[in-house]
Amino acid sequence: xxxxxxxxxxxxxxxxxxxxxxxxxxxxxxxxxxxxxxxxxxxxxxxxxxxxxxxxxxxxxxxxxxxxxxxxxxxxxxxxxxxxxxxxxxxxxxxxxxxxxxxxxxxxxxxxxxxxxxxxxxxxxxxxxxxxxxxxxxxxxxxxxxxxxxxxxxxxxxxxxxxxxxxxxxxxxxxxxxxxxxxxxxxxxxxxxxxxxxxxxxxxx
Length: 205
What we know:
One of its GO terms (molecular function) is acyl-phosphate glycerol-3-phosphate acyltransferase activity. Its EC number is 2.3.1.275. By secondary structure, this protein is mainly alpha-helical. Helices cover 75% and strands 0% of the residues. Helix 6 runs antiparallel to helix 7 and helix 8 packs antiparallel against helix 9 (167-183). 49% of the residues are buried.
């Protein structure tokens, strides 16, 4: 049991790693929280650091979700081997919570989109690719990453259900969608007001 708990704690700690801050400080000597939308996510990192920096942050955040699911599986194997899927789901959710409420950022953090994408990519790869296409089309047409993320999160559990994924995975999709929408509440207000920042490079001043 203790081993399983330790794996889940590790899932939270890894999820808490602020990828944008790490990339910004190590390679660009810049804190992304000082510019743009003032967060450490991949979108704001792209605005500040460019394609390479944004891609690095995206991949790191995605891997946090993948690792969270894997570590959740290890936790289940250690404590409840017959509940492997549930352990993976819990580990994935914990990594998303870590990303959104990071112990390294005074329990603040990102929106959880990229980390959540890593979680569902591990558990439901084909629906995840469909969701990514929906996201890419919306962002390509509007240049609004927040809009693509919100719509993608909402349709994800629907696509999982239609594709025939196990019900626990569909429920995970619903929970993740709720978390993403709640974390985007300010973005939703700005979208309605027509004031949302688009995905484009900014000049640091």
